[in-house]
Amino acid sequence: MTDTRRDGETMAGDADARSRQDKRQQWRVVPGPAVPPPGQNRLRDPRTALAVEIGRLAAGLSRRLGLGSGGIIGGRLALSVQPRALSRLAAGRRVVMVTGTNGKTTTTQLVAEALRSQAPAVSNATGANMLDGHVAALMTSHDAPFAALEVDELHLAQVTGQFEPSVVVLLNLSRDQLDRIGEIRTVEASLRNALAQAPGTHVIANRDDPNIVSAAADHSSVTWVSGGVRWKDDALNCPRCGAFLGDSDRAWRCACGLSRPEADWTVTGTGAVGPDGRHRDLALRLPGHVNRVNATFALAVGLHLGCEEDAVLARIAEIDQASGRYGMVRLAGRQVRLLLAKNPASWLEMLDLVSGQDRPLVLVVNSREADGYDVSWLWDIDFDSLRGRTVLVAGDRALDLAVRLRYAGVRCEVHTAVDDALAVVADGVPDVIANYTAFRDLFARKERR
Amino acid sequence: MMKDPVRIALVLPDLLGTYGDRGNVIVLEQRLRWRGIDTETVTVLSSADAVPEHCDLYVIGGGEDVAQVAAVRFLHRGPGLLRAVDRGAPVLGICGGLQVLGTCFTTGDGEQHAGLGLVDAVTEPGDGRAIGEVTTHSTLGGVGMLTGFENHLGRTRLGPQAQPLGRVARGTGNGHDNAEGAVTGHVVCTYLHGPVLARNPKLADLLLEWAIGEPLEPLPEPPELTALRTERTRANLRNRK
Ligand SMILES: [Zn+2]
């Protein structure tokens, strides 16, 4: 959700046929091993070459001036020079687009690592998940044959309007920042439309989320992953006709024709069973069931694109954080584990992760623009698993959280700042669960060891 | 003497429960339990036959247009809710719930739908979503200032049979006559999320007293709730859109 910008993107571009006379090869394209060579030289088109040059220059200057990582501005400028930069830069590569409400960033990193077991892959690791971020990521290397790109749910349709990715990963869909993004039905319709524009794309989708099933069911080429869905309140009714479905964990078939597909991959307590019926162990450094699900998506992508299984498994096992998620950082002189939770579904996953142990726990909730201003969703979360523990709360909306915890029967202490909370927290490595801007700010000011 | 538990109906959370409004039921249950009163929640999903008639209090939340239309179709199916209201059982309708309990509402696509007519209120789409913090002064005795968060396209005009729940001090509310929400008898409707009963315990207790039919002993207000109400109603709180 980084750098979310939901208006002002104008990608409409003329096809710019005028500058194709220049056939000189300006960069040598080195394909990775065992990967088909790119179908065309991405930079043969001078306008794209110019766009990339200007974009890179701007990105470099932005970095030098300390204005940030430079990705967005570089991508934005490149797009202003060559509106079709995305499809030009994607041409000849195997591009994997990853979307869904939760787990995009982590899964994108897992996919990128899976692909790197075979050949170089670029990725928008900074979380800039709209078109300028994609262009910026693709500009970083002309010869990487793979790209793993996280995409905002409502922007996948713009991407497939420009080119057909090799693979689209659809993770899940649940309520998130209702005062800003809008309702799930709108998002699902947009994803369905995005896939309709890409009949040649292979889709790897969550069969346990009816909203995702509805988005992908009409596509001709889908691999279905079953990992269970912890948050079910957005999946009780058919996304297409509104009829009651009941428990989405069981086989369901709606009168309108939509039904739960058979699973190709099933996530277990220790790994995943593939389409061949064989169980693979997933000995991950990333914690929890939710990351076994994310890793199974990455494994399915890797195998679909011809990577070697053992190499993929070895690579994804080693990842221990994704843009700070799940990572150990130093804050206020203490080692803490930083966890991101930004909506009811991801809070449930993170609460699962911290329950059953008594590490000190700090919860941080903000309500800035990128979080959404309404925090009523705190009441959608079941905090019962924290009873008996003392929780420290901080952030812009610490008081809302404290009232919520009071009604859940969970003792808490309110602190103005996270540092104040960490100063009084008991010994041990605290878990800090923070929502989007709170997490981003904490991660940005982590201390060097 | 053993009393029957107070039965709270959470009506159609699968259709009208998008904005954390289930929290209102958590608040009602807990405020009863803190007083040693048994409580039982009856969740009425859209898979049920109809709304049961014999609950003591009904809570209906908000949702998107399609869900709201499906909800009103469901509610028209049986006389349960109307009979409960005739008996004097309190009903709390939030946002979409307000529109559904009103006389009629027009969805974003221009289609007009008949509501349940429990409050004299007509809703039509406005020219933009009203999003932000709201503060009102309640017209209900003893309830005082109400605080909440609104997020709605509809603008609601009250007829002579309904009184507003509050007078808007900040925010949009119904969008007509400085009014927020609607009250007729024990049917209370509002655009306020938050959830509204979490931020406004006096309104929660008033509904509970109506449900039980007798006064409740007061509960001390937890300090974080006092602080939250102060924070949310600060005059200089930015009403960000
Ligand atoms: Zn259906």
Automatic annotation (TrEMBL), chain B:
Keywords recorded for this protein, A-Z: Cell shape, Cell wall biogenesis/degradation, Glutamine amidotransferase, Hydrolase, Ligase, Peptidoglycan synthesis
EC number: 6.3.5.13, 3.5.1.2
HAMAP family xref list: Lipid_II_synth_GatD
Protein name from the UniProt record: Lipid II isoglutaminyl synthase (glutamine-hydrolyzing) subunit GatD
CobB/CobQ-like glutamine amidotransferase domain: residues covered: 7-200
Catalytic residues identified in the record: C95 (nucleophile), H193
Pfam families membership: GATase_3 (PF07685)
Family: Belongs to the CobB/CobQ family. GatD subfamily.
InterPro entries: Class_I_gatase-like, CobQ_GATase1, GATase_3, Lipid_II_synth_GatD
Stretches assigned to coiled coil: none
Binding site for substrate: R129
Biological pathway: Cell wall biogenesis; peptidoglycan biosynthesis
Gene3D superfamilies in alphabetical order: 3.40.50.880
Quaternary structure (record): Forms a heterodimer with MurT.
Purpose of the protein: The lipid II isoglutaminyl synthase complex catalyzes the formation of alpha-D-isoglutamine in the cell wall lipid II stem peptide. The GatD subunit catalyzes the hydrolysis of glutamine to glutamate and ammonia. The resulting ammonia molecule is channeled to the active site of MurT.
Matches recorded under PANTHER family: DETHIOBIOTIN SYNTHETASE, LIPID II ISOGLUTAMINYL SYNTHASE (GLUTAMINE-HYDROLYZING) SUBUNIT GATD
Catalytic activity reported: beta-D-GlcNAc-(1->4)-Mur2Ac(oyl-L-Ala-gamma-D-Glu-L-Lys-D-Ala-D-Ala)-di-trans,octa-cis-undecaprenyl diphosphate + L-glutamine + ATP + H2O = beta-D-GlcNAc-(1->4)-Mur2Ac(oyl-L-Ala-D-isoglutaminyl-L-Lys-D-Ala-D-Ala)-di-trans,octa-cis-undecaprenyl diphosphate + L-glutamate + ADP + phosphate + H(+); L-glutamine + H2O = L-glutamate + NH4(+)
